[in-house]
């Protein structure tokens, strides 16, 4: 039997994403973001994000269907992020997904947001090799995972950040540097003109495969404060911060691959868009004989296609659908 079109909905933070996937192939996707509404607060405001999802969801579903040249009646299954994420934001996506699944009479699948980030890469590069190590680096997460079959095997957590996520570190230091929100892309742009050796910043390497970015964040913010009243060499600060983050991320990721005899590293999440993280990962993987997979930028940040991709894997693996009274799990463990 041909596999159905899976409609995926992502609404865990500030992006309302809808994607349509059939048998590993992305048919169409659309995205709305409330990022601009949060900019003046320097971070995502949960209440604003939830309201924005409510306004955006129906038009984004429509746009994704239009892009794919499909009608709602072509949808054969619905997948939705149930967690982790902001409670109010998740609720809106789940309510929309339930309504769609119920009215179309199709199965509903709840998806873990991080499994979505992992699966994003399959839409570009095909099925993931079993096993692979996945580094997820976003505004909310910095995790090293050992992944086997996404639809059947549990994901093994190798390490996590002990404090701030890497994206959070970029966002907060960018603020201290007077750069706009979100800070990651702003740091990336500013770093182009800077010297990565200009500012001595710590390269925190806590035990095993864990990470720690709060000391680095504080050191970079202190460096900025020390320039009070004088011009801040932002480009040098940005380049030095980016180098330190890229160094610890790629060092640990390659070490995890080596220790587990894994030949493929996948880097996903918003921070995978960082130019220095990408370049250093490429360099170190090549030196270690590891294949590096990084999805294109539009699939690196939050989107609905990645949730549809997991839904598609679940459907094809014959996973049991979620009951219609399934709840969100804002702090869902893996
Ligand atoms: O995956 P994502 O869209 O959302 C979640 O946090 O789940 O990731 C957003 C994060 C933000 O912290 C943003 O600053 C960071 O990814 N980011 C970047 C870049 N583009 C986005 N960080 C560094 N360099 C970039 N080019
Ligand atoms: Zn994310």
TrEMBL record:
Residue ranges of every copy of the Gcp-like domain listed in the record: 26-308
UniProt catalytic activity: L-threonylcarbamoyladenylate + adenosine(37) in tRNA = N(6)-L-threonylcarbamoyladenosine(37) in tRNA + AMP + H(+)
Protein residues bound to Fe cation: 113, 117, 302
Keyword set, alphabetical order: Acyltransferase, Cytoplasm, Iron, Metal-binding, Transferase, tRNA processing
Enzyme Commission no: 2.3.1.234
Chief localization: cytoplasm
Name of the top EC class for this enzyme: transferase
Sequence positions that bind substrate: 136-140, 171, 184, 188, 274
The protein's required cofactors: Fe(2+)
Single annotated GO MF: tRNA N(6)-L-threonylcarbamoyladenine synthase activity
Pfam (any one): TsaD
Superkingdom, taxonomy of origin: Bacteria
Cofactor note: Binds 1 Fe(2+) ion per subunit.
Location in the cell: Cytoplasm
Role this protein plays: Required for the formation of a threonylcarbamoyl group on adenosine at position 37 (t(6)A37) in tRNAs that read codons beginning with adenine. Is involved in the transfer of the threonylcarbamoyl moiety of threonylcarbamoyl-AMP (TC-AMP) to the N6 group of A37, together with TsaE and TsaB. TsaD likely plays a direct catalytic role in this reaction.
Family the UniProt entry places it in: Belongs to the KAE1 / TsaD family.
Name of protein: tRNA N6-adenosine threonylcarbamoyltransferase
Protein species of origin: Streptomyces andamanensis
Protein encoded by which gene: tsaD
């Amino acid at each position: 039997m041909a596999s159905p079109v899976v409609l995926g909905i992502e609404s865990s933070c500030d992006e309302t994403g809808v994607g349509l996937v059939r048998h590993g192939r992305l048919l169409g996707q659309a995205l709305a973001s409330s990022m601009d509404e949060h900019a003046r607060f320097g971070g995502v405001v949960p209440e604003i994000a939830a309201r924005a999802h409510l306004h955006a969801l129906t038009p984004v579903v429509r746009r994704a269907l239009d892009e794919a040249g499909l009608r709602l009646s072509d949808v054969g299954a619905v997948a939705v992020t149930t967690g982790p994420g902001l409670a109010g934001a998740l609720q809106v996506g789940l309510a929309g997904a339930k309504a769609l699944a119920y009215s179309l009479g199709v199965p509903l699948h709840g998806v873990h947001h991080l499994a979505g980030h992992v699966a994003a890469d399959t839409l570009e590069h095909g099925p993931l090799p079993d096993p692979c190590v996945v580094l997820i680096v976003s505004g909310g997460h910095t995790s090293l995972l050992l992944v086997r079959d996404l639809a059947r095997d549990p994901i093994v957590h190798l390490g996590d950040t002990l404090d701030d996520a890497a994206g959070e570190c970029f966002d907060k230091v960018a603020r201290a540097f007077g750069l706009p929100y979100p800070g990651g892309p702003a740091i990336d742009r500013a770093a182009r003109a800077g010297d990565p050796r200009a500012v001595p910043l710590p390269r925190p390497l806590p035990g095993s495969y864990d990470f720690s970015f709060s000391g680095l964040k504080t050191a970079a913010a202190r460096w900025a404060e020390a320039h009070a009243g004088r011009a801040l060499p932002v480009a040098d600060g940005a380049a030095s911060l980016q180098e330190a983050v890229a160094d610890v991320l790629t060092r640990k990721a390659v070490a995890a691959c080596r220790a587990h005899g894994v030949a493929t590293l996948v880097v996903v999440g918003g921070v995978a868009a960082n130019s220095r993280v990408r370049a250093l990962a490429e360099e170190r993987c090549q030196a270690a004989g590891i294949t590096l997979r990084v999805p294109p930028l539009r699939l690196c940040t939050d989107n609905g296609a990645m949730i549809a991709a997991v839904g598609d894997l679940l459907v094809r693996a014959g996973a049991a659908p979620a009951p219609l009274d399934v709840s969100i799990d804002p702090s869902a463990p893996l």
